[in-house]
Amino acid sequence: MGAAWVAGDILECSAQALKISSEQIEAEMERIRSAFLEVRTELEESARRISEQFDPKLAEIFHAHQMMLDSFLSSREFETELRNSLFTAAQVVKTVFRRWEQKFAALESETFRVRADDILDLARRVLRRLEGIDAYGLAAMPAASVLVTQRLLPSDVVSLSRRDVTAILVESLGQGSHAALLAREKGIPVVAELPDLLGQVRSGDDLLVDAFTAVVVISPSEESQRTFEQRIESHRQSHSRSKGDCRAPAITRDGHAVSVEANLGAHDDIELVVENGADGIGLFRIEQLYLARELLPSEDELYDDLQALVGPFSDRPVTIRLLDMGGDKPLPSLHMRPEPNPFQESGHPDSRSDDCA
Hints:
The protein has helices spanning about 10-15, 25-55, 55-75, 75-85, 90-105, 110-130, 155, 180-185, 195-200, 220-245, 270-275, 290, 300-310, 340-345; strands spanning about 1-5, 145-150, 165-170, 190, 205-210, 215-220, 250, 255-260, 260-265, 280-285, 320. It is an alpha/beta fold. The protein has a six-stranded mixed sheet with strand order 4-3-2-1-5-6. A three-stranded parallel sheet has the order 9-10-11, with helices on one face. It has a two-stranded antiparallel sheet with strand order 7-8.
């Protein structure tokens, strides 16, 4: 439940395109270079935050965006567009990024079409740096709102939490999109594929969002709201009972005890593992202890980190997987030569990228 906050898109709402003189070309190009550098730093911070709070693999979204950003800037398309159009830096950025977004959106492969959203995300970030404002974004959104937007991009989600938004409504969002993965990891309910959403919902509208059934009620009646509140309370009670039951031993109907252990991969996970009554840790991935650092941890630092993380399980089994880097998972603190995933290259029948490969 919450009031709608309709977020505009800086790609659509930014200032009218203005012309420049030929003498201003280099100055505008320098503004673009500076904006790209600032965005690169911003992406590093996003990667660090996601790596520390969630699965480090999700941080690769932003490392990939960094590579795309570098590739765009080195292509010289922005300079060419500046000289040919004599528009300001902001308009040139929109034009070049839109051109690439349309190319990817037209491809048959769903994997490549999803990359079109990544391109738009980079365009948004660069434009915010160029225009120096976030009036079109989420900075002014009141807490506990329902975010309503036409497209949801990773930069929208990375700074959000359940305290900021009660739910997100979006006109179009692919299941495999990076924004969808981040929202799911953060536990934010999302309802997508809502045609003409922005034509039906205005900022301030009261909304009821049921992400289980993908139903949204706009300006509900008092009766609808009471019924919805009763469902929420029933869900909370059921959740509370489950929290109590999960701490009891897991016994099958024929009397066999089953050990239920958790996978651990981020600092925040340990509280969730304890809260949900795990009998131990079946797999503790320690890559995050390396990815979150600019320098390799010393033996003592690594020991202290591990002890602090698994301390609550001192009387229960913990299985730690040793560092698994290289191939498709480079280590930032080491200058490792890029190489393909050896499993994928060999055509091995067990070739796959999950943790248990």
